[in-house]
């Protein structure tokens, strides 16, 4: 959070937060809040980010990693974001969890790009874009096991001008217990 706060008030250039390659970081639920004062922020994910391997709560209870009210930013790289969703899937299958969070949430953001990363094993939806505009999603891949419940790749709601390009989505099973499509 210190890196985000510093980047968000940076007065010149294009500040970059780097998640370095060859390393894995355990990240508790977190919200990156805007608006940033002067500059566009760049988050470069070269390494891996993993969620806690247990049920957890977050500020908003809808996403593990949230970007909220941020304008003109980029999240890219060839790293992986692993939501470690199996504990959530078990909870959902046993009807002990009413709601299951997304791995990555974008809320009320404008002019953003998310590119090149792999999102794995989300507790619920892999990426949620809500109440945002001018969103560019490029070269992303989403993967979770076939028996993972409600792990949609991308969920877009109340947003405008959203571009999805070159996405590979292999996220969960859309069949219910009766073998029928779950809409």
UniProtKB/TrEMBL annotation:
Transmembrane segments: none
Coiled-coil portions: none
InterPro entries, A to Z: Glyco_hydro_28, Pectin_lyas_fold, Pectin_lyase_fold/virulence
Subcellular location: Secreted, Cell wall
Chief location bin: secreted
Alphabetic keyword roster: Cell wall, Cell wall biogenesis/degradation, Glycosidase, Hydrolase, Secreted
Gene3D superfamilies linked to this entry: Single-stranded right-handed beta-helix, Pectin lyase-like
Keyword Secreted appears in the UniProt entry: yes
GO biological process terms, semicolon-separated: carbohydrate metabolic process; cell wall organization
Superkingdom assignment: Eukaryota
Keyword Hydrolase on entry: yes
Single GO MF annotation: polygalacturonase activity
Residues in the signal sequence: none
Family affiliation: Belongs to the glycosyl hydrolase 28 family.
Name of this chain's protein: Probable polygalacturonase At3g15720
